[in-house]
C-alpha cells in the first residue's frame, strides 16, 4: 500500500551515521562508525523513481541498478569529505544547495525525507528555507518540539516505560529490568540464571542489534562471574542497561509490523507490511521476509491489534513518520514485543521497491526475502551475477529469482538482494540455493 502522497519533489537524506553517531562512537574506533556509511544505497529504492538522494558513500553500481529497475530519474550525491553529519554537509555545500533549488523547480518546494529525523535535519530544513526561499515539507518527521517522542520511544527504557501504559492487556513485554549500574545488571543476570532462564542485556540507545548481549541459559549455567561478560561489551558502558528474559523457542519467529503515522488530523496510521525478520548468526538484523502466509498465522491478529494501539498512541503524542515494532513468538504462540524503531528501517526500502515494481497488492502474488547482508566471495557485480546466473530474476520468465539491490559493500564481500518466490516455502528454498552459490 502507499502510505501518503508527496506534496513536492523528493529529496532524500540517508543520515544513518548522523542517527547513530553518538552511540557507535563509544567504541573509540572511528571505523566502527564510518564503516556503516555504506548503507545509503537502500535510499535509491525509497518511494518513487524521481528524486535526489544524498548519502555518505559512493555506490559504484548505482547507474546500473537504477536503469535496470526503473529509477533513471534518481540522482545520487555524496560529499567530497563526508562527516558523520550528512545534513550539515548538505547545508554547508553551495553545490548541493544549487542542485536542490534546481530540482525544486518553479514551485520552489521540496519534500525532505531522512533515514531518521534529527536535530541536524531540522537545521538543514531551516537553511533551505532561509537561504534559498524554499518551502520544505517534512512528511516523515514530527514537529521540532515533538522530536523527543521519536528519540524516547526509540530507546529501550523509553519503550519499556510507554508501551505498558498504552496496552490494556497482559504485559506483552519479556520480563525485564532497567538499571544504570553494571554491577546491578550483573546481579540481574544472576537472577535470571537462578531461575533457569537466559537473558538479553541491551544498551539503552542501541540499534540494529548493536549493543545487545545475548546470554542463553546454557552459557550462564553455573557461571560465577557475570560482570566480566558485561565489561567485555564496550557498548554497555556509560548507559542505561536493560536486562530482560531471553524468549527462546524451537522455531525462531521474530515478526515485525511497520506503520506510517501522519500528523494528527491528516488521517489514521497505516500498516505498510507485516514481516518475519531475518538475522545473521550473530543476532544482527539482516533483512525481512514478506509473505501473505504471515497474515494467517494464529499470532497475527493479536500482534496487529497491539500494533494499531501503539500507532494510534504515537500519533497522539505527536509522532510522524515510519516506525516498526519487533516481536518474538514463543512455542505457545504468545507474542512478546521487544522494541520499536522510530525511523525508516532495513525493510522499508524493500517494501518501497516491491510496491513500485509489482503494485500495492504484491504480497498477494509473491513472497519476498530481503537479504541485506549476504556474504560472498565475489567482489564485483559482474562476477556475482555470473555466479548467480540461473537464479537471477526473472527465473524462467516468472516473478521469481534474485534481484541485486545493495552493492556499496560488495568490495568487502557483502551484498544485498531481494529474493522473490511464489510462496513462503518457495522463497525459503531459493534462499538456501542462493546461499550455497554465494
Topology diagram in text:
Layout: E1 10-13, H1 16-24, H2 30-34, E2 51-54, H3 62-69, E3 74-77, H4 86-92, H5 94-104, E4 109-114, H6 119-132, E5 135-137, H7 147-153, H8 156-166, E6 176-179, H9 182-194, E7 199-207, E8 210-215, H10 217-220, H11 226-231, E9 241-245, E10 255-261, E11 270-279, E12 285-290, H12 300-317, E13 321-329, E14 335-341, H13 348-358, E15 367-375, H14 381-387, E16 401-406, E17 414-421, H15 424-437
Parallel strand pairs: 1-2, 1-4, 2-3, 4-5
Antiparallel strand pairs: 6-9, 7-8, 7-9, 10-11, 10-13, 11-12, 12-15, 13-14, 15-17, 16-17
Give a nutshell description of this structure.
It contains 15 helices and 17 strands. The protein is α+β, with helices and mostly antiparallel strands and 438 residues long.
* Corresponding CATH superfamily of the largest domain: ATP-grasp fold, B domain
Q: What is the CATH first-level class name of the largest domain?
A: Alpha Beta
Proportion of residues in β-strands: 15-25%
- Low-confidence regions: none
User: What name does CATH use for the topology of the largest domain?
Assistant: D-amino Acid Aminotransferase, Chain A, domain 1
Global geometry: globular
Number of domains: 3
